[in-house]
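As the next step, I selected for study a record pairing a protein sequence with its C-alpha cells, which the following lines show:
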Amino acid sequence: MNAEQTLVALSDRSPHVAPEELIAGLVPPPQFHDVSFASYRTDDSEPSQAQARNKLEEFAASSTSKGFLGKLFSKGKDGPKGVYLDGGYGVGKTHLLASAWHANEKPATFGTFVEYTNLVGALGFIRARDDLSQMKLVCVDEFELDDPGDTVLMSRLMRELTDAGVKIIATSNTLPGSLGEGRFAAQDFIREIQALADQFDIYRIEGKDYRHRGLSEPAEPVPAENLDAATSELTGTVARDDFPTLLRHLSTVHPSRYGRMVDGLDAAVWEDVTTIDNEGVALRFVALVDRLYDRNVKIINSGQALNKVFTEESLAGGYRKKYMRCLSRLTALSSQ
C-alpha cells in the first residue's frame, strides 16, 4: 500500500441508515452533482437527443414557480403529469434527469426505482407518500418491472403523487405501455401499467452507449500474481475483497444501504471473480455495481473477466436488460 492509499474491505462494512435519512438521501449521486442541460453533449447524428433535452428543459421550467395555488388548480386536470424518457444504455438519460432535478425548484427528490421501493419498505406506504407529496418534483431513474408487486406499488404511489400535484420524471429502457408485455399475464397488472403509462409524455432518445468510448468489453482481468502490484498503484480509498466473500456479505446488507456502504471509495479491487450462477446473488451484485457507478469507482479484478460474471441463461432471461446495463457500467468503470 502506498502513502496516498487507504485500504479497506467492503465485506467489513455493514452500515445502518435511519428511515428518516432515506428521504434526505434522495439526491443525484456524486457523478451527477454538477451536471446541467447545457453540459449534456448531444450527438448531431441523433436529433432525438437534442429534442429530448429541450422538451425536458421546458418541462422543468414549467414546473418551477408553481406554488400552492398552482398545484391546487392542477389537480384533477386531464393530460400528462410527467415526462418519461425512453432509450438504450448510455444515451444520457440519467444526465438529463439529474439536470432537471438541479433546474427545478426544491424540495425535490432523485432516486432509482429500487430506492423508492426501499423507501416505501422502510417508511410504509402512507408516510412515504405523504413525505413525497411535499415535493415539487420526483425523479425516478431506471424504472423496472422485475417484481409485479413492486410495479403495482410504484404505479399506485406515482398516481397518488400526481393527484397531489407533484410532477414526475422517469427514465427506463422500455416504453411504459410495453413494460409488462410477455412477462406477466394477469390483467390487473396490465391495467396498472397502462394507468401509469397514461400519466406521461413519452420521449425516445436514440444513440450509442457513450460509456464504452469505442470499447465493447470490460478491461482484461489482472493476473493473480500481479494484483498486489496493480493495487499498490491505486490512490485514495481502495476496497479490496475476495469476490466470493463479497457476494456472501451482500446478502447480509439490505440493498438500500449499498450506497452508504460504498461511500468514499475511489477504487474497488476484486480477487478471484467467478461467474454468478444464482439469480438472487446476481441481482444483489447488480445493485452494488449501480451504486459504484453512481460514484465513479474504478474497478480492477483478477479471475474471470467481468463480462463473464453472468451466465448465458441469466442474460437470456427476464432480467436481461438489468444485466446488460450492469455490463455496460462494468465496462465504463474498469476501463478508466
